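Workshop exercise sheet. Pairs work together: one partner reads the sequence aloud, the other fills in the structure field after running the prediction. Swap roles for the next sheet.
Pair: D.N. / O.F.
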Amino acid sequence: MTDITPALTDYPYHIAIETRWQDNDVYGHINNVTYYSFFDTAVNRFLVEEAKLDIHHSQTVAYVVSSQCQYISPAAYPETIYVGVRVIKIGRSSVTYGISVYAGEEKRRVAHGQFVHVFVDKKTDKAVPIPASIQRCLSDIHIDTI
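Structure field:
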């Protein structure tokens, strides 16, 4: 049988996030809602740092319209979290990211999911085409999936 579980290195963009004591829930592991924060942090860090999206002054911003997460195994404070991001679909005004979360020194995969942004005009809240400069950066981390 072939193992098709992606490794962190299969994601062209990834970041490390230090967990906090408050990330744990009463069961002693990172609470499920915190994973969405990991997704949001990784994707937006990519847009700000790599695609140069100016979240404070740009007329175009990205809104989350859909997200999902499947949990594989627990992680807990004080483990370091590693989040891998790749683009799996680019549309006219939207982008779908594939995201995996890994934990600890051995970087075991603990969750994965999808995250969808729609680019909108900040003043009108209407969908607009993805700016060309951002689309080029998104294309750089686009991976065709099976």
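Discussion prompt: The radius of gyration is 16 Å. What would you look at next?
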